Amino acid sequence: MAREYNMDRRAYLATIGAGTAAGLAGCTGLTGGGGGNTIRPGTAPGFQPFEFRDGGELVGFDIDLTEAIVAETDYELGEWQTFEFDSLIQALTTDKIDMIAAAMTITDDRDETIDFSDPYYSANQSVIVREDGDFAPSSLDDLSGHPIGAQSGTTGETVIQSELIEPGKLEESNYNSYDNYVLAVEDLQNGNIDAVVVDEPVGETFADQRPVSVAFVYETGEQYGFGLRTDDDDRTDAVNSGLQAVRDNGTYEELRNKWFSG
Question: Which of 11, 60, 84, 236 is the most buried (most CB within 10 A)?
Fold first, then answer.
């Protein structure tokens, strides 16, 4: 599916959020850690269409959605900070950022360290392979004996570890961990690995734009949430209220159609 990424997201959000932006100028004195009345967001580019760089600009569904949500609150949006995905939680807990916006799956393990907003997206895992290759797996068991990859710290890596390596279906040496999925897919295209386990919407985007295809989908029923510090109830409440507001006023649907429709 062809997508246009040349739309100026600031102009787009100015249009859909004009009714709320005016209230930001007079906001002062809100409580919470980090940047006072500011929400400093952090993300991990390379996860298209959620967050990636286009001509040097940070764009994507999570980027636009975060800006729209914050525009519905009494907070101002701080400057975006970028990290490797598996460094985001540490960046949050050490006050480098106030919010993780990176298609992060809500899990019990993560919830022990940070809080999550209400869910904002549901997804499963997909397994992608080379489009012109002979390998056509239809289940996780079919990956046994093959070199496969995923991004470090993601649900895809967890699936490989818990469903394949721990039960002895896949040798640890056959698993390759990457800092981001772009590197994993490049290795797949170059024939260094035979499959990549990646979140379903991202797998579909890679299949649209590169010579890879989705072999099958592994249902995990996961949900994405925005990550916030456990002691930062004010920002958590504000993000949840802003998320509900953009759902109610149609902005969420507009952004979903922008990033996930052909």
Answer: 60
